[in-house]
Design a protein that fits this description.
Elements: H1 2-13, H2 15-42, H3 46-67, H4 75-82, H5 84-107, H6 113-120, H7 123-146
Helix pairs in contact: 1-7, 2-3
């Protein structure tokens, strides 16, 4: 039952990145509309037009800079920045494997093969595994639905 709930939770939580992208896109479009409203409002007055264009250009440059801060142009810095999530995932997998190895060594002489399976592949382990797999496959599904890679 816990495995099923974890699987469903993993699948549902994979919607969160797409929802955040949608909200960010909506906010960007709202901001662009505000900029266009400002442009239309001040385009009639010739004296303030040049100053307003400078402010709008500054706002747009600021928005572009905010969304492109993760790319520095230095290849090794960009590679390191892009490797944060995979390195964390592999580190936690290594930690999890080490803990399971310690569990195996602790029960090595005192349990049968079936008891090994119950201890090393418990309901909690199944729930964790199902949640992770459901998240990644759900993320792939929603990425294909929205047309993003």
């Amino acid at each position: 039952m816990i495995t099923l709930l974890a699987s469903i939770a993993g699948f549902i939580t994979s919607i969160i990145p797409e929802l955040l992208k949608f909200l960010r896109d909506r906010q960007d479009k709202h901001h662009e509309l505000q900029i266009m409203d400002r442009q239309m409002k001040f385009s009639g007055s010739s004296s303030n037009q040049a100053i307003e264009e400078i402010y709008i250009a500054k706002d747009m440059a600021e928005q572009v800079a905010l969304y492109h801060t993760y790319k520095t142009g230095i290849s090794w810095v960009d590679a390191l920045n892009g490797s944060v999530r995979p390195v964390l995932a592999y580190s936690f997998f290594a930690l999890y494997s080490a803990m399971k190895s310690i569990q195996y060594r602790a029960i090595h002489h005192s349990a049968s093969a079936i008891e090994y399976m119950d201890i090393l592949w418990s309901i909690d382990d199944q729930a964790i595994f199902a949640g992770i797999i459901s998240f990644y496959f759900g993320q792939r599904t929603f990425s294909k639905i929205t047309g993003r890679k």
